[in-house]
TrEMBL record:
<comment type="similarity">
    <text>Belongs to the amidase family.</text>
</comment>
<feature type="domain" description="Amidase">
    <location>
        <begin position="26"/>
        <end position="453"/>
    </location>
</feature>
<dbReference type="InterPro" id="IPR023631">
    <property type="entry name" value="Amidase_dom"/>
</dbReference>
<dbReference type="Pfam" id="PF01425">
    <property type="entry name" value="Amidase"/>
</dbReference>
<protein>
    <submittedName>
        <fullName>Amidase family protein</fullName>
    </submittedName>
</protein>
<dbReference type="InterPro" id="IPR036928">
    <property type="entry name" value="AS_sf"/>
</dbReference>
<dbReference type="InterPro" id="IPR000120">
    <property type="entry name" value="Amidase"/>
</dbReference>
<dbReference type="InterPro" id="IPR020556">
    <property type="entry name" value="Amidase_CS"/>
</dbReference>
Amino acid sequence: MSEELWRWSAVRTADAISTGLISSREAVASTLERIQQVNPVVNALAEVLADEALAAADAADARRRAGEHLGPLHGVPVTTKINSDQRGLATTNGVVAFAKDVAEEDAPHIENLRTAGAVVVGRSNTPAFSIRWFTDNDLHGRTLNPWDPSRTPGGSSGGAAAAVATGMGTIAHGNDIGGSIRYPAASCGVVGLRPTPGRVPSWYGPPEQDQLLGVQTMLVQGPLARSVDDVRLGLRALATYNPRDPFCVPAPLEGPPLEHPRRVAVLRDVGVAALDPAVDDAVSTAARYFADAGYEVEEVQLPLFAEAWRLWWQLVQGVEFEDLARAIDEYGDEAIRRSADNQFAVTKRMHGDVALDAYVRGYARRGTLVRELQVFLQRYPVLLTPVSAERTFEIDADVRDVDRMEQVIAAQWPMMSLALLGFPGLSVPVTEGGGLPIGVQLVGPKFREDLLLDAGRVIEARNDVATPVTPNCSSEPR
């Protein structure tokens, strides 16, 4: 085996460990060596768990030798995000004041990864409070995009995306309430899945702590990886039913075959933000790939996405993040305070002061929009959209001023709208141009992630974005 093990896919690594071709210790040790080489450059992992990971790898090898049942990720090195509870470790969420908030037990999704046999080699970085598309905080520092350090790696799962893009783990755990898996995946040239809400169990904070309505209906946990098949494997590991999540649905991972010809609808623009020509070209390229593979491809108009994008900002930012805003004022660093101020200023421009009756009517309208998209996806089971209307943002675009923040928010309409509506979305890289990858988003019916993953393989088989990459960074992050 002349090729370094850290380059191997999760599927290949899991199979090799289960058959005894390699040991988990070999795979984990190779990954830790890669982390030692690369992480000081990109700062994707806020915490490296070398001793714990090697001990877990040895235990995994002992269980295999004993003939015990092996989970789908048995002995495979993965990373988890610093904003999820992991027993015995601090859930910092990138905030200095939370540096000693040690979790007593694993969050349900972390528990599922352990049950699947995964070996956690590190914890990935996130912006403070995990509410920016830019990964930087005063506690752990800035994560760099390994393709171009002048551009964001995305957020809030920017550390997760940069880690898998550079070979620091086969699969990364992330979460997404408005693009926090899909945008980092597109920014770093990897695959990221936002599952249907309820597919992967989740919970934040103490069991008795009530969750905001937006968190209950929109926040999901999901995998990022260098290939569609690895994302599929990551979903299988994460999506085990857990009663600690009141909304977890034990739905099958594979649905029935489609009765009609395979169709893809293409949605480019909903009147919110003009597409960058390179992004438009990427959508056209992906559409051509589907046509070449025998799909029926049709351009469509879906104004409901523009309305859903506006509703996200009205309901979540306009009302539900008020408590978070107070926490940011008290504990946040300068960057998150400026970003939050700009976000609230844009929301005020869009909606003014959101009263209780507008909040109630907004959630009522949400149901109608969900119904409309659900009916549409019966005819077109796969919807192709941009991930963002712009190419990967320059570092700290959101803190420059309110006008630039307004442009940033507008560009993200494909991800925000989908989060509000509660459908699964897959971010897949399509092409590389100007030194940066460009991806597209695939949308499908609820609990039919399998359709998106199958469609994602059509793009993956033809694209020219190769990972893992060697970081193109001339200096260390601050």
